[in-house]
Design a protein that fits this description.
alpha/beta; 9-stranded mixed sheet; 19 helices; about 20% strand; Trehalose-6-phosphate synthase; about 45% helix; binds 6-O-phosphono-alpha-D-glucopyranose; single chain; globular; Rossmann fold; Glyco_trans_20
Length: about 500
C-alpha cells in the first residue's frame, strides 16, 4: 500500500477507471483500456510523476483484479494500465449498486439533465434514503483511499457527479491537500436542483465546496452551480469579471473554473486513417448505396451512447418528418445512427433502447424500398466503425436534451473528409464554442430539427467545407492533455 509519508503528488479519482477486466470461466482476467481526457492528461505528466488514479471496481472482473492487487502493493498490474498507477476500490457490490445506479445515475444524472417526468417522479422515500447512505459510504471509501495514498500537499482531482462528497470528506481527513472537483455534466438550475431533498441538496453542494476549486465544462454550468450555492446554502458568490467566480461558504472560499475539454486532433486524425477504419468505411459505403442517378446517397450521422439525454428518439422523429415533408429526399439520404449500449442495469435505459429500435424500424417500414434502407441503426459498440461514419458524414446530428459538452460534436468536424454540416442542440455545452458554424436547434422542436437537417443537406459544398474547418479549429482549441494540465496549474495557483 502507498503510504502518506512518501505518497503520490498528483491523484485522480473517478468512478470509471482507465481499465476494465473481464473474468473468464477458467479464472483468467482480460484487461481492456479506455480512452478519454483523463488518460491523455495523465500520460502528459509522464509516469515519472508517480500519479495515482483511484477508481471503483465496476464488475466481477474488476473486483477480482482489485483483490489480486490488494494482495500485493495495492496497485493494478502496470502491464494492464499502460504504466499508470491505478488503485481500484473493491466496494461491496450492494453499496456500489445503490451509489452508482441508485443515486448517481438515477438521481443526480437525472437532476442535472432535467430528465424526470415530474408528475410521477422523483419520489424520495425510504429506499432513496438507504441508497443515499450507500452513496455516502462509497464517497467515504474514495476519500479514505485518497487520504492514504496522497503525499503531503499533493493535488487531487476528483471527477464528476459520482464523487460530489469526496472533496469535503477528504478535506476533513487531509487538510493539507489541494483538492479540485470537475463536473463533466451540466449543472441543474436552482429550481430543478431543489427537487432534491433539502438536506441532500445541501450535502452535495457542501461536498464540492470542500475543495479549493470546482470546475465545469462551460461558463453556463459554473454559473448554475454558483446560483445553487447561493439559493440552497445562502453562500456568497463573487464575480471577478470574466476571469472567475468564487463561492464563499462558512468562511471558506472555493474558486470556480471553466475548462472546455476539446477533441484530441492528433489522435483522431491518425486513428481514423488506420486500415480497420478503411475497411469499415468501405462496408458502410456499400450499405448506404447510390440513388437512382447513381450518386452516392447523402448521410446524416449520429453516434451516441443509448442515453436518455442524447435525444435519439426525437432525432429519429425529426428524420421521419424530413422524409414526410420533403419527399425529394426519399431514396437520396440515409440516417446512420450508432446507439451503443449504456447503463443497461436501469430499466428506463432498456426501455429507451427498445424505443430507439422500434422507431427506427417504423421509419424503415414506412419509407424503405428494395434498394434503400432509410435508417441504418447499429447498437453494438465499434469505435473503428464510428470513425468511419465520421469520415463520410455529410451531416452530423447532435441534438441532446442537455449535455455537459458532447465530444461527438467536436470530433466529427476533425475527422470528416469532405466537410460536414453540424446540426447542434443549443443545450449541449459544445454549443458555447461551436454555435457560429453549426445549425443550432431547440432539441425539443422536431419540426425545427427537420428543417435544420434539410438546410444542412442542401448547404453548398464550399460552405460546408469552410464551416467544418472552422468547427474543427474551435473543437481542438483545448486538447485533453492541456485541459488536464491547466486544471493542475490552476489548483496550485
Ligand atoms: C458521462 C459521465 C462520465 C461517465 C460516462 C459513461 O460522460 O460524465 O462520468 O463515465 O458518462 O457512463 P458510465 O455510467 O458508463 O460510466
Amino acid at each position: 500500500m502507498v503510504s502518506s509519508s512518501s505518497g503520490a503528488q498528483v491523484l485522480v479519482a473517478s468512478n470509471r477507471g482507465p481499465v476494465s477486466y473481464a473474468l473468464g470461466a477458467d479464472g483468467t482476467l482480460t484487461s481492456r483500456r479506455g480512452g478519454g481526457g483523463l488518460v491523455s492528461g495523465l500520460s502528459a505528466i509522464g509516469s515519472d510523476a508517480g500519479a495515482v488514479w483511484v477508481c471503483a471496481a465496476l464488475g466481477d472482473g474488476d473486483r477480482e483484479a482489485a483483490r489480486r492487487a490488494a494482495a500485493g502493493d495495492g496497485l493494478l498490474d502496470s502491464a494492464d494500465t499502460g504504466g499508470q498507477q491505478v488503485r481500484m476500490l473493491d466496494i461491496p457490490p450492494e453499496v456500489f449498486a445503490d451509489a452508482y445506479n441508485g443515486i448517481a445515475n438515477s438521481v443526480l444524472w437525472f437532476v442535472h439533465h432535467l430528465l424526470y417526468q415530474t408528475p410521477l417522479e422523483p419520489a424520495f422515500d425510504a429506499d432513496f434514503r438507504a441508497q443515499w447512505a450507500a452513496y455516502e459510504a462509497y464517497n467515504a471509501a474514495f476519500a479514505d483511499a485518497l487520504a492514504e495514498a496522497a503525499a503531503p500537499g499533493a493535488a487531487v482531482l476528483v471527477q464528476d457527479y459520482h464523487l460530489t462528497l469526496v472533496p469535503g470528506l477528504l478535506r476533513e481527513r487531509r487538510p493539507d491537500l489541494r483538492i479540485g472537483h470537475f463536473s463533466h455534466t451540466p449543472w441543474a438550475p436552482p429550481d430543478y436542483f431543489r427537487l432534491l431533498p433539502d438536506d441532500v441538496a445541501a450535502e452535495v453542494l457542501r461536498g464540492i465546496l470542500g475543495g479549493d476549486r470546482a470546475a465545469f465544462l462551460t461558463r453556463r454550468w459554473a454559473e448554475a452551480f454558483a446560483e445553487c450555492c447561493a439559493v440552497v446554502l445562502g453562500a456568497e458568490v463573487a464575480r471577478d469579471g470574466d476571469a472567475g467566480l468564487r463561492v464563499t461558504y462558512e468562511g471558506r472560499t472555493t474558486r470556480l473554473g471553466v475548462h472546455g475539454l476539446g477533441a484530441d486532433a492528433d489522435f483522431l486524425r491518425d486513428r481514423s486513417r488506420q486500415p480497420d477504419v478503411d475497411d469499415r468505411l468501405a462496408d458502410l459505403r456499400e450499405q448506404i448505396g447510390t440513388d437512382e442517378d447513381g450518386a452516392p446517397r447523402r448521410t446524416i450521422v449520429r453516434v451516441d451512447r443509448t442515453e436518455l439525454s442524447k435525444n435519439i428518439v426525437r432525432g429519429l422523429h425529426a428524420y421521419r418528418r424530413l422524409l414526410t415533408d420533403r419527399p425529394e429526399w426519399r431514396g437520396r439520404v440515409v440516417h446512420i445512427a450508432f446507439a451503443y449500449p449504456s447503463r443497461q442495469d436501469l430499466a428506463v435505459y432498456r426501455e429507451y433502447t427498445e424505443e430507439v429500435s422500434r422507431v427506427a424500424g417504423e421509419i424503415n417500414d414506412e419509407f424503405g424500398t428494395d434498394g434503400w434502407l432509410p435508417v441504418v441503426l447499429h447498437v453494438k459498440d465499434d469505435f473503428a466503425r464510428s470513425l468511419a461514419a465520421y469520415r463520410l458524414a455529410d451531416v452530423a446530428l447532435v441534438n441532446p436534451i442537455r449535455d455537459g459538452m458532447n465530444l461527438v460534436a467536436k470530433e466529427v468536424p476533425v475527422v470528416s473528409e469532405a466537410g460536414c454540416a453540424l446540426v447542434l442542440s443549443r443545450e449541449a455545452g459544445a454549443c458555447a464554442e461551436l454555435a457560429d458554424d453549426a445549425l443550432v436547434v431547440n432539441p425539443y422542436d422536431i419540426e425545427a430539427t427537420a428543417g435544420a437537417l434539410h438546410e444542412a443537406l442542401t448547404m453548398p459544398q464550399d460552405e460546408r467545407a469552410d464551416r467544418s474547418k472552422r468547427l474543427a479549429m474551435a473543437a481542438t482549441a483545448l486538447p485533453p492533455a492541456r485541459w488536464f494540465l491547466d486544471q493542475l496549474a490552476a489548483l496550485s495557483a
